[in-house]
Specification:
two-stranded antiparallel sheet, transmembrane, EC 4.2.2.29, lyase, transmembrane helix, 3 domains, Endolytic murein transglycosylase
Length: 354
């Protein structure tokens, strides 16, 4: 009887195994040969890892249920002694361990074979610190290392910028870079973009409007953009207005320049008055002659192009219209400008703006 029970037990076990999936049988007999994740898993690896650290990380992220089969696979592919590259990786459901190991190995470009690039954006930045903060959200470099590198005398010398001019190097766009891009690599990539943007045609336009350096055009564009951030049709009009003032030797008297001097203190303030304009600051165009020493914000390429192709006009003054359109009244006459300013302030009073 006991013998019969044992035989029946073996038969039952055999039937149970027959119902298991082939992959599950392999796993029972040989260990995990594929990843266990049932959907895509995106990994952001912030620093290079040893084989043991990588295997543990993959278990932690639900890609593997144990480290041993993966470590054996690395050894089989002669990768167990390697350091695996930081970066972004996407692991598909049921990825073979042979492919997984190969994907993490270092390719000819110095990055993981399966490493993916990430989107890098830095729109609406004002300072280098803002750039550092925005970029650190996209790549593994932290904001302090980015700011320190960008501001370092050796970096400024390498790219022939002063600290004040340095924001002109950065042209906002949607870029793709490896997640493990460091500060030096990021700035080098931006320098390449800068060189590609400043074609001979743009340099000729720069000279035609009476400016000497790309950073000057970017500085003027930053003022234009700070004056008008929404209505692109006004950019070439405002650009010519300030070029007219420069040509006549007039102070630019742009409110955003002295507002820049106050940092965040004037955020939300719509009624800018004399005490705000009287601040002593190298960027305050009510105090200084000519352009500020550098941009007051990071400028989109299309605003720079508007400066390089300004409208034809003789305007010297501008004032916000007394409504919510976001548009401006332009004039050559200081008398008309005073009237426009009075109308605008009456409107502010009526609307209860401070």
């Amino acid at each position: 009887m006991a013998k019969r029970i044992i035989i029946i037990g073996f038969i039952a076990a055999g039937i149970a195994l027959a119902y298991l999936k082939r992959a599950e049988i392999k796993q029972l007999l040989f260990g995990t040969q594929k990843t266990i994740n049932r959907s895509e898993v995106t990994l952001l690896i912030k620093e290079d890892m040893t084989a043991d650290a990588l295997a543990g990380f993959l278990v932690e992220k639900g890609v593997l249920n144990e480290t041993k089969p993966f470590l054996k696979q690395l050894e089989k592919q002669e990768l167990s002694g390697e350091t695996f590259d930081a970066g972004k990786y996407v692991i598909l459901s049921g990825t073979k361990l042979t492919d997984l190991a190969h994907g993490f190995s270092r390719g000819e470009n110095g990055h993981g074979v399966a490493e993916l690039k990430v989107k890098v954006l830095f729109n609406r930045c004002t300072t280098i610190e803002d750039i550092g903060m925005n970029i650190s959200k996209c790549i593994s470099a932290d904001s302090s290392s980015l700011v320190d590198y960008i501001s370092a005398p050796s970096t400024l010398s390498k790219y022939s910028f002063t600290l004040q001019q340095m924001p002109a190097l950065f042209l906002p766009d949607e870029y793709e870079m490896y997640y493990d891009t460091d500060a030096a690599e990021f700035v080098a990539a931006m320098a390449d973009e800068f060189k590609q943007f400043w074609t001979e045609e743009r340099k000729s336009k720069l000279k035609a409007i009476g400016l000497a350096y790309p950073s000057q055009a970017t500085t003027l564009a930053s003022i234009v953009y700070a004056e008008q951030g929404k209505i692109a049709a006004e950019w070439p009009v405002i650009a010519r207005l300030y070029l007219n003032r420069l040509k006549k030797g007039m102070k630019l008297q742009s409110d955003p320049t002295f507002k820049f001097c106050w940092g965040s203190e004037l955020n939300g303030v719509q009624r800018l008055v004399g005490k705000h304009r009287n601040i002593d600051c190298d960027y305050n165009t009510y105090k200084i002659n000519g352009l500020p020493p550098g941009p007051i914000c990071i400028v989109p390429k299309k605003v720079i192009d508007a400066v390089l192709s300004p409208a034809e006009n003789n305007y010297l003054f501008m004032c916000a219209k007394p409504d919510y359109s976001g548009e401006h009244d332009f004039t050559h006459s200081d008398i008309v400008h005073v009237k426009n300013a009075l109308a605008y302030h009456r409107w502010l009073n009526k609307e209860g703006k401070k």
